[in-house]
Here is the input.
Amino acid sequence: MGKALVIGAGGVAAVAIHKCVQNSEVFEEICIASRTKSKCDELKAKLDGGKTKITTAQVDANNVEELIALINEVKPDIVMNLALPYQDLTIMDACLATKTNYMDTANYEPEDTAKFEYKWQWDYRERFEQAGITALLGSGFDPGVTGVFSAYALKHYFDEIEYIDILDCNGGDHGYPFATNFNPEINIREVSANGRYWENGEWIETKPMEIKRTYDFAEVGEKDMYLLYHEELESLAQNIPGLKRIRFFMTFGQSYLMHLKALENVGMTSIEPIEYEGKQIIPLQFLKAVLPDPASLGPRTVGKTNIGCIFKGKKDGQDKTYYVYNICDHQECYKEVGSQAISYTTGVPAMIGAAMVMTGKWNKPGVYNVEEFNPDPFMEELNKWGLPWVEDFNPVLVDTLPEDTKKPELVR
Ligand code: NDP
Here is the structure.
């Protein structure tokens, strides 16, 4: 069918590339390009020998000219941006210049401020439309599958969705007192920011980790979860008509929160540069360098993730609730692709999103979030490629749980 250029060779890219190779009917050829070429070569060495032809290249994705030269050489049908959110705009610029389709799994972030906003990328809408190319934003799990779940719920089960709660539970244990499951810099930025949710047309801000509930997750059990801001809230609040409220909850253990607070208190999570021995360093980037590489967690992580959305709304004038979720086993993922479930649950939808664009099922000039496309073919592919989903028409609703706004111990 076609050729993809994958940018990035980290945890998520490794899974997506494994899956592209499994889906060789669509991905006849892939080029893996990243800052450190040896990581691309390692992936090629592991995966060569199948039907997909693999090549590798070195690229600095902050440099538009380098990207344009690479795209012109490879001539891909799509660029899969699996590098970091800082590179989204340079890669989009290069796609525009070469009239090549684009996809990513995370919204653009300026290096100096944590914003989690789509506005920079939505500003490309007209230019992509005029160039006749598709940009698919946020095709990971959350954002990504959570948006597809929302579009699917609206299409098949509701006349109107009024409430959405996204519940992201990681019941995995890697045995370290503190480590992050994906890029530590992005992860810590996300969880140390203020919480925020959308209600009746307004954003309501909370302190970090201020709102806590305990939920009994299928196949994982009871876990503490905290209200966070997460980027799909912004697009879903706009794209699901009639929505009254949307929130996002993520589970964290006590040890993770205690360490994070201590690191915050000593200034290690700051993104403000400081001078150290005559050199400017960003404390959070230094912290990343001393923490375990998320890719190294694969063999040691046991347990399951359970991520999904609970919807409440109306169908034929009646109240209706619906919960759709995926359960993923860390060790099963490791056996299949050599990565833990966090990279797996992001890398699989990244491959599916790219395949949707390449096969023309999700091909529409402009810049779109996943929920703006027909969810049905994506939902089918989730079942096929390792992320089967489960439906529950009578779920426990978050609003029926006892309120617990008390901060966890040692966390001020
Ligand atoms: P990693 O840090 O493991 O990998 C990032 C990769 O990008 C590395 O190979 C890195 O190269 C490469 N890279 C960084 N800067 C550049 C550059 N300037 N030029 C070329 N390559 C570069 O991150 P993850 O795989 O964990 O995450 C990848 C993306 O997925 C992130 O944007 C993250 O936010 C997103 N994500 C999305 C989720 C979702 O559900 N939607 C969930 C989890 C992650 P090098 O090896 O040299 O450092």
In short: Confidence is low (pLDDT under 50) at residues 408-412. DSSP finds 14 helices and 18 strands in the chain. The two ends are 54 Å apart (CA to CA). Residues 8-13, 34-36, 39, 59-62, 82-85, 87, 105-106, 140-144, 182-183, 186, 294, 346 surround NDP (CB under 6 Å).
